[in-house]
Design a protein that fits this description.
2 copies of one chain form a homodimer. The first copy, chain A, is an alpha/beta fold. In chain A, 54% of the residues lie in helices and 11% in strands. Chain A folds into 3 domains: 1-39, no CATH class; 44-252, P-loop containing nucleotide triphosphate hydrolases (Rossmann fold), CATH 3.40.50; 267-314, no CATH class. A 7-stranded parallel sheet of chain A has the order 3-2-4-1-5-6-7, sandwiched between helices. In chain A, α5 links the parallel β2 and β3. In chain A, α2 (16-27) crosses α3 (33-40) and α4 runs parallel beside α5 (95-105).
Chain lengths: 318, 318
Amino acid sequence: MTKYDKLIEAAKKGDQRSLGRLARLIDDNEDGAAQIVGKLYPEGGNAHIVGITGPPGAGKSTLVSALVGEWRKAGRRIGVLAVDPTSPFSGGAVLGDRIRMQEHATDPDVFIRSMATRGHLGGLSRSVLSLITLLDAVGYDTIVLETVGVGQEEVEVKDIAHTTVFVTVPGLGDGIQTMKAGILEIADIYLVNKMDLANAGSAMKDLKSMLLMSGRQKGWAPPVLGAVALEEKGVHELAGAITEHWSFMRGSDGLEQWSSRSAAMSIKVALRQSMEDRVLGVVDGNRDEFNEDVRKVSSREETPASVAGRWLAKLDLK
Amino acid sequence: MTKYDKLIEAAKKGDQRSLGRLARLIDDNEDGAAQIVGKLYPEGGNAHIVGITGPPGAGKSTLVSALVGEWRKAGRRIGVLAVDPTSPFSGGAVLGDRIRMQEHATDPDVFIRSMATRGHLGGLSRSVLSLITLLDAVGYDTIVLETVGVGQEEVEVKDIAHTTVFVTVPGLGDGIQTMKAGILEIADIYLVNKMDLANAGSAMKDLKSMLLMSGRQKGWAPPVLGAVALEEKGVHELAGAITEHWSFMRGSDGLEQWSSRSAAMSIKVALRQSMEDRVLGVVDGNRDEFNEDVRKVSSREETPASVAGRWLAKLDLK
């Protein structure tokens, strides 16, 4: 039994410290990371992955916190991954928000991890996917991925999450917010938060009519819900809709389709990251030469593409 | 003289149609694209590149439109690249905004191009950099890059633009917006737009005190300005601050530092893109095999990393 096996066994029994160590190894992409993920991968595929996406200021973290509370009542073990520089989970927000999260921070059946270094999924995708594999394999029932994604990422939240909730608020750019290219295509559930604000009713109405026009009524018809997450209003209904969507996915060919799409994305992420690692490794090992190339490009003696060509040759890439 | 040389010559003389054709060739990454950029690269390095960044709904496009008007009074030729799915330039916004842009659409000395397929710079960086090279080389004096970036991108606006303006509005998440990791580090000028809204004064005050706390007063001390872009208020002052920053850059070692940082980024973008092209090429040429691998990952017989390893071997990467 390797030291990783021991950590995995302990994490499965609910030891948060072991789980935290595994998560750090994965996050830092330590030597053992690939080995850990390789061991865990076959055991995954059970958790329900829920993406919560939407613009900064929409109250996603407050909503996630309320959802976690709702799910905990049912005894579920919950993992939260926040890929959001503005998230209170990642320390990016005001004190009040951070305090609201504290209630779950001490719950051994809630694992929270923020990934604050980047605000988008693209650069973080390997870590996010590996951490999901970890939480899934050690027995977390629901894994929440909170992100500011606008449906225009290289790696989209809908390819990582089974169920995607798009959260918006009244008045946040109004039409502009909702008309964003892609927004109407990506989510399974739409939520207008802060329904106590003015124009909340018309924000919901607008969303509903735009969804109708977009023709997304075949198969799963995405509901438009309202909430005041801060007062936990509408959260029970949201949790219900999330469960309903998960049942729909499992009862139709939706899950299989998602599974293929998600696997293809995972392979491409792994490929892209491996190549990036190798390139950066070669650059790091030849710093002086790279700096000289930077000087040449900076002085316009050479183009970035011709320099890149030379470095690719160095990688012995055919 | 190749057909590209002819297009380039015509574009230099102000022929928008030729410029548009070159831009499309670059955008679509046609075979000739690398050749065109290679020809143009040595002739660039003259334009002032201005990044306008900030959250959706901050009124960036209205501001850019007003800035273009201001610069046109001085006879400058302006290029606008909008990497923003919510930008009116890319058709993402409400009718009123789009109409406001029309005034520049017919001006032969204003070149506007939207890049609507992605909302972040990472995936678009090759096209953005190449289009900047094009506009720069054919004689555009100022190139504006409009983006929703939050200072957390793989490719940051500050490595593409000489001068970065961060635009926000009162009440848009208030503290949360401005406290975003990175925001206080990336911009050279901060602008609170929609100063006619409530709390505008305190939004400016907050920004100013946070900048003071962040200790960014050495060298260039980023000013905090106010504007009502829709009424063209504060736009003249913003244009003045942008010019002042450009003078500061050229009069200090700022430009040289920027130039090295930017060149290093350009090389890495070129490297990453070349590799991505090769990977996708190999995957496309072996579709059946890739689909079988997707099935294996989907059924958890194999991990994404082990599949990626096989494909890398196929690329003959050492």
